[in-house]
Design goal:
Order of helices and strands: HHEEH
Strand content: 5-15%
Helix content: 25-40%
Number of strands: 2
Largest sheet: 2 strands, antiparallel
Structural class: alpha+beta
Radius of gyration: 21 Å
Length: 70
């Protein structure tokens, strides 16, 4: 019997998922929380700092998406 043929064990699967689920904790005053990537990119500005210390925007909010950024 292969893993594909084996019947699911919901109790064991749930226990396995619970054992490895992430635990997220924040400190008081935390300003950065998880969010969906496309929402973040839609509102993000991409900046570059030049060697002389000046900064310039390479992309404005609405210009970035996962395909373009990658």
């Amino acid at each position: 019997m292969t893993a594909i043929d084996r019947p699911a064990n919901p109790t064991g699967d749930l226990a396995l998922l619970r054992r490895h689920e992430p635990i997220v904790r924040y400190t008081q005053g935390e300003a950065f929380f998880p969010m969906e990537v496309t929402t973040y990119l839609a509102h993000a500005t991409l900046w570059e700092r030049e060697p002389n210390g000046q900064v310039r925007a390479l992309a404005q909010p609405g210009d970035l998406n996962a395909v373009r950024l990658g």
